[in-house]
Task: inverse folding
């Protein structure tokens, strides 16, 4: 059913104009939104997960994930410059490969954005709980900071649930206010990572890099030395997990409909934010590995607040507190961007008739899609309350990798079917870049655990059932008479 019910690009642009969001964002704000979305739990927390899977070779894992993301970003930039509306990969797929593929992509993006927001909420909780314990010399009970599926099971992760709900309320207030708030938090995060690099790099000991790849390159299953459970390890498996550290740059494209001069500013925001974050990640990974070591089962692998742990171990307890405070203040900006991206995708899907119309309602005072923001916020809070960060990150990656691969394919399809359409940004060497980006995403997907892959397939099946019972019957493309009058 490929190329079934393809929505013409001109119709996509016309639909956006009829029920448009307010354009308030420029290139600088978009770059800050991108950095705000990217720098978060992936580097502050998942460094320990990478150590468990790859050891010091997680340096290679960061480079593999960055390369795949960079190629995907070039494809995203071309699509966003051609189709400057909300919806990201969902909208691009609708305009190239048809409604069914677009629905599956939109459904998969729930895993990327909403589950990612839950993962970051859990990462924020880990830093804040340790910080509160240090400052006030108290012990916060694990029953209230761990979900029932954590390595050390609890009842509910109350701080993670709370921060998700606070961010939801902020987003209801409006995009401009959220972007201003985000810019301040980005500055805090960049300052914290700069401090970490400045203190950790001088403490590097070459011996900490050996053995460099204790678990080999390709994904394989072993017994986790910490929990005793079966886990997937290897450099490629770590790259598939670390991919989460770069997720977020595509959230810039979901703001296309709220961007001034999107054909110019969206590519700047996408590529600029990814380049800045990649540089930071490589430096931070080198500092963490070289200063304290990163062997599977080691202390770094067991930490819930990896960067603060490293600074304490090398004798900079004061800096560890500052980094923990920065994480506590700044990680909410990632949650903000993830929920922001999810709500805009649901907004566009509702506008196309594939979801109930009330998801596309705008707040009478703030002009934001408040109904879908509330629904998304509650979903994020629930998952943050129950699941550990590593599991959430891998589930999120499965949806992200699928969506990224489809965007790369969409670029090639449009180059063939609509070569004359104006492209303010063109993917360089597209017949090399796009296929390698798609192949890289497929490769990393199959480096995730079998459990994660099965969850993705199950989620996709649920989505297809919903589509055929509702979206297929209500689609404005399939049933033009159901579309609102112009």
Result:
């Amino acid at each position: 059913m490929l190329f079934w019910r393809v929505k013409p690009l001109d119709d996509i642009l016309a639909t956006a104009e009829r029920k448009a969001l307010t354009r308030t964002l420029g290139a600088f704000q978009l770059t800050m939104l991108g950095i705000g979305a990217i720098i978060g739990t992936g580097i502050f927390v998942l460094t320990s997960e990478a150590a468990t899977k790859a050891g010091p070779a997680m340096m290679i894992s960061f480079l593999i994930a960055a390369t795949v993301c960079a190629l995907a970003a070039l494809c995203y930039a071309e699509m966003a410059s051609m189709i400057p509306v909300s919806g990201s990969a969902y909208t691009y797929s609708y305009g190239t490969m048809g409604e069914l593929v677009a629905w599956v992509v939109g459904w998969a993006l729930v895993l990327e954005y909403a589950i990612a927001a839950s993962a970051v909420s859990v990462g924020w909780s880990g830093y804040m709980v340790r910080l509160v314990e240090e400052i006030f010399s108290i012990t916060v009970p694990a029953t209230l900071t761990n979900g029932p599926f954590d390595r050390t099971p609890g009842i509910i992760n109350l701080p993670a649930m709370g921060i998700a709900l606070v961010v939801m309320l902020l987003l209801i207030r409006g995009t401009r206010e959220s972007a201003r708030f985000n810019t301040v938090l980005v500055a805090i995060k960049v300052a914290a990572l700069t401090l970490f690099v400045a203190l950790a790099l001088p403490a590097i000991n070459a011996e900490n890099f050996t053995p460099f790849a204790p678990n080999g390159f390709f994904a394989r299953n072993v017994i986790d030395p910490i929990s005793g459970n079966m886990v997937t390890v290897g450099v490629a498996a770590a790259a598939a997990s670390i991919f989460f550290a770069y997720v977020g740059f595509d959230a810039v494209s979901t703001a296309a409909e709220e961007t001034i001069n999107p054909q110019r500013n969206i590519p700047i925001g996408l590529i600029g934010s990814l380049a800045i974050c990649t540089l930071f990640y490589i430096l931070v990974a080198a500092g963490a590995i070289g200063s304290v070591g990163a062997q599977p089962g080691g202390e770094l692998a067991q930490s819930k607040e990896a960067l603060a742990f490293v600074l304490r171990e090398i004798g900079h307890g004061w800096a560890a507190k500052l980094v923990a405070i920065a994480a506590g203040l700044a990680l909410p900006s990632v949650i903000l961007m993830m929920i922001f991206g999810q709500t805009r995708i649901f907004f566009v899907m509702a506008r196309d008739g594939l979801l109930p119309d009330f998801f596309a309602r705008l707040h009478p005072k703030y002009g934001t899609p408040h109904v879908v923001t509330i629904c998304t916020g509650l979903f994020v809070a629930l998952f943050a309350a129950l699941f550990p960060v590593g599991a959430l990150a891998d589930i999120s990656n499965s949806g992200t990798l699928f969506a990224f691969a489809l965007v790369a394919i969409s670029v090639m399809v449009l180059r063939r079917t609509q070569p004359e359409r104006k492209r303010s940004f063109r993917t360089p060497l597209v017949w090399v870049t796009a296929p390698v980006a798609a192949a890289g995403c497929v490769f990393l997907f199959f480096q995730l655990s079998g459990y994660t892959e099965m969850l993705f397939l199950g989620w996709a099946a649920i989505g297809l059932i919903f589509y055929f019972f509702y979206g297929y019957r209500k689609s404005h493309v399939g049933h033009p008479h159901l579309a609102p009058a112009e």
In short: The chain has one domain: 19-477. The chain has a mean pLDDT of 82. The radius of gyration is 21 Å. Residues 19-477 form a domain with the Amino acid/polyamine transporter I fold (CATH 1.20.1740.10).
